[in-house]
Amino acid sequence: MKRSVRRRSGQRRPVALWAAFCLFFVSASLLPASVRADLSDALRKGIDKSAHAAKTLRQAAFAEGLRSFYTARGHAPVWATGRGLTERGRAVMRLLSLAAQEGLEPGDYALAQEMRDTPTGGDEAAARREMAVAILIMKYAADVGDGRAYVRALKPDLFVFKEYVNFAAALRGAAAARDIEAYFATLPPAAPGYRALRDLLAVYRKTAASGGWPHIADGPVLKPGAAGNAPAVLRHRLVRSGDIVSAQEAPVPVSGIYEGDLVDAVKAFQKRHGLAADGIVGARTRKALNVPVDRRIRQIVLNMERLRWTPDRLGDPHVEVNLAGFELTAVRDGKIALRMPVIIGKSYRESPVFSDRISYLVLNPDWSVPRIIATQDILPKIRQSPTYLSDNGFRVFAGTGAQLDPATVDWSRLGDNHFPYRLQQAPGPRNALGTIKFMFPNRFSVYLHDTPERGLFAREVRTFSSGCIRVAQPAELAAFLLNSGEWDAGSVRREIQTGKTRIVRIARPVPIHLSYRTAWVDSGGTAQFRDDIYGRDVKLAAALFSGN
Question: Quick check: is 215 catalytic?
Fold first, then answer.
């Protein structure tokens, strides 16, 4: 969205609350029948009542938007008269009726039936109609540009929020635009990938309207070379989802053998669903094939919503970690310069979503163990093996800062509620942070780092950390961030081999965005889907579609 239409504000409120507020001040009780004011005076009084009726931040913002917009124009109407909607008002309502194209519900932006059916009624009715259209414009601008859900109440640490819409600016734009349709086109996010998801939504809705795709029945694992009816059903399924070009566009023989282009299509399907691209149709691939098109449509809509919370400009260069995709991408000059797998937080220690700036990195870091990890993960290992700490390079410090001999501590008496020590792991090959950590100080105490457990990057589902992000190619990422003649991946590795701990500042801190996307369109135009590993789609869907 254009920057001029945004402002900072507080947290969101449920749709039901502000909807009731809107109904209050556009209802027939807004202006008693005894009031015989002209339209401008009716507008002024209605706006005053809206301000007094506001009970939430969003309601107050709506009322302030109305007051600011109409005061500046002397309370002259734009969208309605005593004879019904103006031409511009009708154009606005036509565009609002197309809200489904943006993954929104058109019914949320429709005039009440009595306002559509009563083209007359004098100044009071015109004032109600005028304000109703203005409210719908503000609601649409907020919903399409900034997001609908009151999701901060669900779990604040898991969602990113942008700035709220400047409602007065939204109304001014809609009132002044020579091309109202072009103006409405500026309201959705400019965040990369949003338009592609919107286009994908249209494609999948068309597929749903024509019957969706067939279910793949349970059966034995299908491997290349297998024969029978299964390959023909599988081919039809992949044609319906566009993974194979349809027979009408490019005729292909329907073989009873699972081979050739069908195997290639399955591999491509697996890859775009985050599965091992081995061409074998086992349980996980069959499960992905059997996700109905309606669920994929909902998944697309949820991820369009997430992009409404994402900064429109990610920065150049920037780093993005898609938690649900287990992948990091580093972008410079608008192109992906680096891509690598990552390991993210366990289901009970989820990695958060937020944006920040990477300002420095540490070569050969030590590790100050967080208390929760010390008590829940390391303490049981110490009890099992008295030499665990020394074998893995850990030092023990008292609360005073004095280093202690681990053998002098009675570890059996310690636990979550009593652990008056600090553990620190020295740099080296066993250090949990590996050879580099990438720092962007934040309230979550989360950062990127190397890991000695390299084999975990080969797993499909990589939820093994305690919240921080482990990266597969730390030296290459360091070179990307430092971006100078002094540093490349080779020189980073040579510096690490010295064994010395060194802090290296990044001359221009690089934006980093930790996101959670389960559906997107990649740079090659391919639709990508991932599992909802943290259940955040479920929570967001409850907020959007269940009236919560």
Answer: no
**pLDDT recorded at residue 11:** 38
Residues 189-233 have pLDDT tens digits of 988 899 999 999 999 999 999 999 999 999 999 999 999 889 999
Distances (CA, A) of 200 to 245, 418, 489: 17, 54, 38
**From residue 180, how far is each of 133, 146, 478 by CA, in Å?**
14, 20, 47
Q: List the structure tokens of 348.
A: 């009970």
Residue 74 has pLDDT above 80, yes or no: yes
CA separation for the pair 404, 105 (Å, rounded)? 63
Q: Kindly state the tokens that stand for 418.
A: 């009593």
Furthest C-alpha separation in the chain: 90
**Catalytic residue (choose from 75, 273, 318, 449):** 449
Place of tokens 């700035």: 163
Crossing angle of helices 194-209 and 293-307, rounded to 10°: 160
Q: How far is CA 356 from the centre of its chain?
A: 15
Per annotation, catalytic residue among 22, 75, 273, 468: 468
Helix axes 167-176, 122-146, angle to 10 degrees: 110
Please, what is the end-to-end C-alpha distance for the chain in angstroms?
26
3-class secondary structure, 52: helix
Could you tell me which residue, 199 or 548, shows the higher pLDDT? 199
Please tell me the distance from the alpha carbon of residue 439 to that of residue 441, in angstroms, as a whole number: 6
DSSP-derived letter for residue 224 is T
* Residue 468 among the catalytic residues: yes
**Cα 169 to Cα 12, 22, 72, 187, distances in angstroms:** 19, 19, 11, 11
What is the assigned CATH class of domain 313-529? mainly beta
In this structure, are residues 189 and 145 in contact, taking their beta carbons and an 8 Å threshold? yes
Banded model confidence at residue 150, pLDDT cuts 50, 70, 90 = low
How does pLDDT run across 102-129, given as a tens digit for each residue? 999 999 999 887 676 666 667 777 888 8
Domain ranges of the chain: 3-188, 213-291, 313-529
Q: Which residues contact 296 (CB under 8 A, 6 or more apart)?
A: 204, 519, 529
The pLDDT value given to residue 116? 67
Query: Which region, left, alpha or beta, applies to residue 242 given φ > 0 means left and ψ of -120 to 50 means alpha?
Result: left
Token pair of 229 as six digits: 């009816």
**In this structure, are strands 463-465 and 335-345 parallel, antiparallel, or unpaired?**
parallel
To which residue do tokens 């590996």 refer?
A: 434
- The three state secondary structure string of 258-315 is CCHHHHHHHHHHHHHCCCCCCCCECHHHHHHHCCCHHHHHHHHHHHHHHHCCCCCCCC
Cβ within 8 Å of residue 191, ≥6 positions away: 307, 308, 310, 311, 312, 314
Query: Is residue 65's pLDDT more than 80?
Result: yes
DSSP state of 178: S
CATH topology of domain 213-291: Muramoyl-pentapeptide Carboxypeptidase; domain 1 (1.10.101)
- Count of alpha carbons within 13 angstroms of residue 250, beta-carbon side: 6
